[in-house]
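Record 1 of the preview.
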Amino acid sequence: MSHRLDIPVMQWRQHDIRPLRDLLTRISADPETARAWRGSVVLHFEEENSYNPYLNPGVAGFLKNAYSEFPHLMYFLDPDQANAPTDGFFTTIGALQENQFGAWIIWSDEVANAFYNVLADAAVYAIDQGDDWIAVVKGYEYDERQTRLTEIKAILIDRGVITD
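->
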């Protein structure tokens, strides 16, 4: 079940993450509640009606602040591709670009490293909540040929969160 969070236009334009902060603080207070909300939050930016809201600088700034305060944000976001949660992350690091054909991710080693680390942050949060970190990561795997489990596991081992 998805939970839509409407972000008022005056807040996302000012990069004010209070509505998201209030929600995440409330649901993070109890591990059972946090687990129940895993992969269910859909952000809706009011009055942003373009084909890809993440190209809007106000939305990008809002999300940059959100990831700065909640690096594990992907734990809570609905990973369904239709909601474009990865676009929301990629815009925060300048990797989401637009051309005449639409929005594209400009992939590089740096972008891959940042993406793997934000997934690792979500995985660490899952572990801290007594949740399945592998399920969190797999939620963001849209093609079985592009699994990221090996990379995320290596980061978690490197951080001392899990052992081999």
